[in-house]
Specification:
Length: 179
């Protein structure tokens, strides 16, 4: 197996592991009746599977071998919603580092189709980290205030919680927007 193909296959584990962990988080949040946060994490879980599928399609279309990884059973309990989202942020930073490693490798090898494929992931990770950081900050502001936590949960349910997070790729806040 070529070095880059092996590295992309290794990265698949990070995407599947994130998907699995986010599903476990969605379940934990659902058990706490935080339905907005729970459905957000379920969507994120499905998105991570989509990321893996995207890379698998790239490998197949490039006539490279695909080796699906073993996925470990995820953590299933968190001390607080804050602790859970701190984990989301750490996990996303790990995925970003892995994507950047793939990018550096592909660039060094002059594999242009790989860097073209990875460009999408670089933007996606910027957005994902921005979202995770935003939620962590909101939760810190909420502190021990249940009403503030429930308001944020409601905003996730309505799909407005992250409306202003654009990850630097959407041109930033428009005039009149809170940003
Ligand atoms: Fe991902
Ligand atoms: Fe992600």
């Amino acid at each position: 197996m070529k070095e880059l193909t092996r590295a992309i296959n290794n990265h698949l584990a990070a995407e599947f592991q994130a998907s699995h962990t986010y599903l476990a988080m969605s379940i934990w949040l659902r058990e706490k009746d935080l339905v907005g946060f729970s459905s957000y994490m379920l969507t994120k879980s499905n998105e991570e599977r989509g990321h893996a599928s995207r890379m698998i399609a790239y490998l197949v279309d490039s006539d490279q071998d695909v080796e699906l990884p073993t996925i470990e059973a995820p953590q299933r309990d968190w001390s607080s919603v804050q602790a859970l989202f701190d984990d989301v942020y750490d996990l996303e930073k790990g995925v970003t580092a892995s994507i950047h490693h793939l990018y550096t490798l592909a660039e060094g090898l002059g594999e242009r189709s790989a860097t073209a494929m990875l460009d999408w992931f670089v933007s996606e990770q910027l957005q994902e980290e921005a979202e995770a950081r935003f939620v962590c900050k909101r939760l810190r502001l909420a502190g021990d205030n249940s009403a503030a936590l429930l308001l944020l949960d409601q905003q996730f349910l309505e799909g407005t919680a992250l409306a202003h997070v654009k990850g630097g790729m959407g041109g930033g806040p428009q005039p009149g927007e809170a940003g």
